[in-house]
Design goal:
This protein starts with a strand and ends with a strand. It contains 1 helix and 30 strands. The protein has a 9-stranded antiparallel beta sheet with strand order 10-11-12-13-30-24-23-16-21, with no helix packed on it. A 5-stranded antiparallel beta sheet has the order 20-17-22-25-28, with no helix packed on it. A 4-stranded antiparallel beta sheet has the order 1-2-3-4, with no helix packed on it. The longest helix is centred in the last third of the chain and has 4 residues. By secondary structure, it is mainly beta.
Length: 334
């Protein structure tokens, strides 16, 4: 089977490649402070190479991003079982059959590509036939907008995200410890073993999770703190300051080596900051050797295990109710 690759370009020298295989992001080329464009995301040379992809490089995650405790949930009194694929839990729905491993039908209109896929009732263990569209748009102010739209014929869970791994230096073989990160989040959700939230929503003030002002990713990442050692560094969900549905800036990251800056906009309630602690040694695009903490993810989302946590906002959508959310990664220099 062949999978189309679509290329988006803008007037500023930015370029993005996305593929019908999994609606995955393959490349994001962004100019540095000197105008030199480099690819700043991890990935592979061809769509077929993404059939492995154990680290979810560039992945369009669905139906449900992140973890669900004990790989089960109850909806309207009925229990649903999911693939057990992360210890005793479920992670990103299905590593081999999730949205990032199916063929989407893609069509390009100028600087936008729309991918369409119908997830059948029971797919991944979730109820309802779900019609999905994911649209990538490259704007002239260097934003990559990702819009997710879905409608199910049964009450179900929907929580999609993009799992791109960024290294703003343009050198994907280098550490991201010197990158600086700012999150518009004064609270986060602590975890237990297995990276499942405890159910608490905790203030970040005075802790190593305080990214309300710019902080270097590597500043405290190896501190001997249980919350860090449980997941080998940062891999935590942050509760955003804005209200769900309020499309606004939720994160910033920058790299002094290149002068590149990335701003993240979203209307979702949470964001997962993952510092690439568990990237397994492997060969990526152009023969570059990838390893841990050579890229980071900022995954907009509903909180992990939200369906099983009493105090968390639920990603539950009724039959016929539209799931419609947008996230944007916007690039500049300084």
């Amino acid at each position: 089977m062949e999978y189309k690759v679509f290329e988006l370009t803008n007037k500023n020298g930015m370029k993005v490649k996305v593929t019908e295989f999994g609606a995955n992001v393959m490349e994001i080329w962004v100019p540095d402070r000197d105008g030199k464009a480099e690819d700043i995301v991890m990935g592979f040379d061809s769509p077929e190479d993404y059939k492995g992809n154990p680290c979810f490089f560039g992945a369009c995650i669905g139906r449900m991003a992140n973890r669900i405790c004990d790989a089960k949930f109850t909806l309207d009194g009925k229990e649903y079982d999911l693939p057990v694929n992360d210890g005793k839990n479920n992670l990103h729905t299905d590593a081999d059959k999730g949205f990032h491993k199916v063929k989407w039908e893609g069509s390009q209109d100028g600087n936008s590509v729309a991918f369409r896929f119908t997830s059948p009732d029971g797919d991944g263990g979730f109820p309802g036939k779900l019609d999905m569209t994911v649209t990538y748009t490259l704007t002239d102010d260097n934003g990559l907008k990702i819009r997710y739209e879905g409608v199910s014929d049964k009450k179900t869970l929907i929580n999609c995200t993009n799992h791109s791994y960024f290294n703003l230096s343009g050198d994907l073989s280098s550490s991201i410890h010197d990158h600086e990160l700012k999150l518009y989040a004064h609270k986060y959700t602590p975890v237990v073993a297995g990276a499942i939230p405890t159910g608490e929503i905790t203030n970040v003030g005075g802790t190593v999770f305080d990214f309300t002002e710019y902080r270097k990713i590597g500043q405290n990442i190896d501190d001997d703190l249980e919350q860090l050692t449980l997941v080998q560094g940062y891999d935590h969900n942050f509760v955003l300051d804005h209200l769900t549905g309020d499309y606004s800036k939720v994160a910033e990251a920058k790299c002094d080596r290149s002068g590149r800056k990335m701003e993240v906009y979203s209307d979702l309630p949470c964001i997962q900051f993952y510092a690439g602690n568990c990237i397994s040694p492997q060969t990526g695009k152009g023969g570059v050797k990838y390893d841990k903490r050579q890229a980071f993810c900022l995954e907009t989302q509903y909180a992990p295990d939200a369906i099983n946590q009493p105090g968390f906002e639920k990603p539950v959508f009724n039959a016929g109710e539209k799931y419609d959310t947008t996230t944007e990664y916007r690039f500049s220099t300084y």
